Please model this.
Amino acid sequence: MRSVKNNMKTILDYIHRETWSPYVAGILLGVVAIAAVWLSNNLLGASGAFENLAGMIGKTIAPKAFDNLYFNFIMPPGITYGVMMLVGIFFGGMIGAATSGTLMWGKKGATNSDAQWKRIFGPQVWKRWLLAFLGAIILEYAAGIAGGCTSGLVISGGMLIAPAAFIFMGGMFASGIITAWVIYRRRY
Amino acid sequence: MSTLIIALVLGVFFGFSLNKAGLTRYHKIVNIFRFTDMAVLQFIMTALTVAMIGLFSLRALGLLTFPNIPATYVVGNLVGGLLFGVGMALTGY
Model:
């Protein structure tokens, strides 16, 4: 009995830790990815959901502009599997932060909390928002071209050994390294 | 309907693992590209290895079939990847 209790405590303590070993977290994600295929014959993904939602908004605001091949067949609008998963990711991330006491929701400085970011770009909140917004446009557009993002293509595609995933990864690292180098230059 | 609930539950675990691996932090993402913190890469590669072994074993046992794999179109995948890296290094997504 005693050892069971101790084991439970060890596990609970681990859940409360802020950062897990990437190997442990990776195993969890691997199991989730297997479960997605096994339980629902679907893949993990995040970026597609934004397109489904954008399609939904677009179809009500400007039905003509959104009445094209892409939004009718490739990325149909609506509450899809991906949208539900995105909602889950949002709350899962919050639960993860809450269990380690690092949830910044509503706290002071929450919108620009990364020390390294502040060191490079400055403490202004608007800068953080602007760069995040512009960067996110690039991300979403790129994911649209490539057919997936880090989750939908690198992880879901990679685990099925899809060539697309590895081509994407090569491009992503090449330009990511160059971009980081341009931003950091001497501090690289 | 039930698949939507499965998606929600899986998403919660997905987000949880991302948070615990530190992928919700800007510096964790950018530092892969600066070669100073490889945790994200270790995380992704572990997930890939576990998922590959699991999926291919389960398929060999006849317990599941694979969904359609993401389409391969070299130029699109590559250009998308190149653009994606820029956004990734900028935002820390």
